Amino acid sequence: MTPALAAARRIAGRTVRYLLLLVVLVVLIGPFAWQLSTSLKGLGESIFSYPPDLWPDEPTLRNYAKAADTVPVWRYGLNSLVVAVLSAVTNCVFGAMAGYALARMNFRGRKLVFAAFLGTMIIPFEVIMVSVFLTSRSLGLVDTLLGVVLPTAVTGLSVLLCRNGFLNLPMEVEEAAMLDGAGEWQRFWRVALPSVRGTLAVVAIFSFVFAWDEFLWPLIVLSTPDNYTLTVGIQYLSGTFTADQRVIAAGTMIAVVPLLALFFALQRFFFRGVGEGAVKG
Amino acid sequence: MRTTVPVRLAAGLAGLALAVSACGLGGAEQQTPQQQSTGPAKIVFQTLQLKPTFTDYIEKTVAAFESANKDIDVEWVDIPFQGAQEKLVADAAAGKLPDVVNLNPSFAQPLEAQGVFVDLESAAADAKPLYVPGAWDAFKVRGLTGSFGFPWYLTSEVTMYNKKLFEQAGLDPDKPPATLDELYATAEKIAEKGKGDFYGLHPALENRFHTDLAKLGVPMLDESGSWAFNTPEAVAHVERLAKLYQDGAFAKDSLTQDHAKENEAYQAGKIALYPSGPNFLTIVKENAPDIAAATGVGPQITGPDGVANMSVMGLLVPKSSPNQAAAIKFAKYMTDGANQLAFAKVTTVLPSVSEALKDPYFASSDGTPEGEARKLSAAAMQNAANLTPVEYDDRVKKMVVGKVQLALQGELSAKEALDQAVEEAGQITGS
Predict the structure, then answer these.
(1) How many domains does chain B have?
(2) What is the ipTM of this complex?
(3) Which residues of A lie inside 8 Å of B (Cβ-Cβ)?
(4) Among B340, B347, B363, CA closest to B282
C-alpha cells in the first residue's frame, strides 16, 4: 500500500468516526436544544413547525420572566435544593456506612441483609405509596420537606454502589492500617472512605438528581403550595385550558440548569477510577 | 414507565381498600371534632389545575360565598392534574381528603365504588333537576344507588380544520365534515392531494376510538355491565379504519401516537382536521399563530343519531368531611347557574346547568373561531352524554387500542381484534 493511499484511508476512517459522533451528538442534544430554542422564541413564532426551526427569529427572555412571574420559581427552587442536598448527604453518609459494613464486616445474616437492600430496588413506589404516606403521617412529617426526603434518604442503589466501591479496595491497605492499630471506625473514616471518593461522587449525583426530579411523592406528601418542589411547582405553567410551550420550556430550563451545573462541577470525580490513591506501582 | 403505572395504581388502590376497611385509620379520627368549634366551619376546596389561569375567577367566587356565609371559611388548594389520582388514593387512605374535591368521573369512580363520597341524590335531592341529565348521571356507579358529584363545567369537542389545506385539496373551506362518514371521506381526499406532505386526519385511537364506537350506536358495555363492543357495526368501523390506514390516509407513524402528538401535527400543518376541545384553539393560537389564522371551526363529528360526547368535571364531598353540610352548600354554590355562567365567560367551558346553557351568550357567534366553537358546542350539549364509561380505564384502553392497532396494520382481522379485546377487557375488570 502506498503511503498516500494509507493516509487517504486514515482520513476516510476518521471522517466516518466523526460523522458517527456527530449523529450521536445530534440525537442526544437535539431535544435539549429544541427546548432551549423554544424557551427563547417570541410570541409570533411557530413552535411545532416542520422541519423544526431551531434558531429563534425574535429571541426574548420574556418567557423566563413570565415563568418566574407565574410560579414562585425561586421559592420552589430553594425547596428542591434543600431536598436534593439533604438527600445527597444522607445517601452518602448512610450508604457508605451500610456499604462498608456489608463489604468488610463479617456478621450473621450479611447476605440476607444485602438481598433485602437489593429487594427494595425492585419494588415500585406506587405499591408502597399508601403505607409510606401513612407512616409519614404518623411521624408528623406530612407537608414538610423532611417528609419528602425520608423515603429516599438511603436507597438500595446507594448501598449497592458503596459496597462495590469498598470491595474494590485492596484488602492489604486496611490490613496494614489494622497492624498500625486502627480500629474499625478509623479504618472506615480515615482509610476506606477517602479512597472511594469517585463512588461517593456518583452516589451524590445520583441521589441529587433523583431527589430533584422526583414528582409523585412530593405531590402526595406536600399539601401547602408554598412547600412544593420545583418539579411539582412548574406544573402550574401548563394550565388546563392553555399551554404556552415557550413558557413551559423556560420552566424546564430553569429546572434543568442546576443539574447541569452540578454534573459539570463533579464530572472529574465521576470518571475517576475507583481504586485510586492506594497501592500504586 | 408508562405501561406499568395503571397496574401499580391498581395495587395502590388495593392497599387503600385494606387501609379503609381494616384499620379505618382516617374515618374514626376525623369524626370527633365535628361541630365542636364555635368559630367558622373551615372547609378545604381542592381543584384540578385551575391555578394560575383562573385564580381570579375562583377567588372572587369563593369570596362572594364567604361574605354571604359568615360561618363558613373556605380554603382553596389547587393540585396539578398529573399525579392527582395517586394523591387522592393516599389522602383517602389517610382520611384527610379535602372537604370539596374537583374530579372527573374516571378519577372519582374507584373511590365512589368504595363508598368514600356522600350520595347527593339523598343529601341534595333538590339539586338534581337543575343540571343537564347527562352530566348528573356521569357520577353514578353501576350497581350503586345515588350519584356522587355535583356536575361542574363541561367541555366538548368541535372540529378544527385548516382552511388552507382544504383549499389545496380542492375542498370547500367553508364546509367542514359533520358525520363520521363525511370525516373519513374528506380525510381520504386530503391525504390523496397531500402526497405525504400533509394528511387529512390523525387516528388518535386512545382519544376517539371508544367515543366513535358509541356514536355509531355501539356502547362499550351492555346493560348488564359486560364488555360487548364486538358487534358487526364495530367490526365494520375497524375495517373502515384499517382501509384508511392501509390506503395511506393516515401517516404511517401516526398509528401509535396519542392526542398530544395529534395536537403537534395539527400545529405543524401536517394534518388538516383536528377534532378536539375548543380550548385547543387557544393553544394553537399561542404556539402556531400562522395555523391559527387558517383555522376554521365545525361542529362535533357525530354518528347517525347525532349524539355528541362531552367531558364532565364535578365537585364531590367525602363522607369523612367534618363539615359535610357546609361543604355541600359550597359545592352547590360553585356549580349553580350564575357562577357557572360566569366561568363560561372566562374560558371555553360550558355550564352543566340547563338554565345557564339557554343564556343568550351561547346563542350567537361573534364570528371568531372561539365564538363559533362556543355556539356549536353549547347547541350540542342538550343532546350530549359522557360517552366514556368509567370502566374503560387506562388498563383497558391500552389493551383495546393495542388490538385495534394490530387490526389497522392487518396483523389481525377486525373481528379477531375486537373479540380478543372484549375477552381481555373482561379479564382485566373482572366483568
Answers:
(1) 2
(2) 0.72
(3) 43-50, 70-71, 124-127, 129-131, 133-134, 137, 215-216, 219-220, 223, 225, 232, 235-236, 238-246
(4) B347
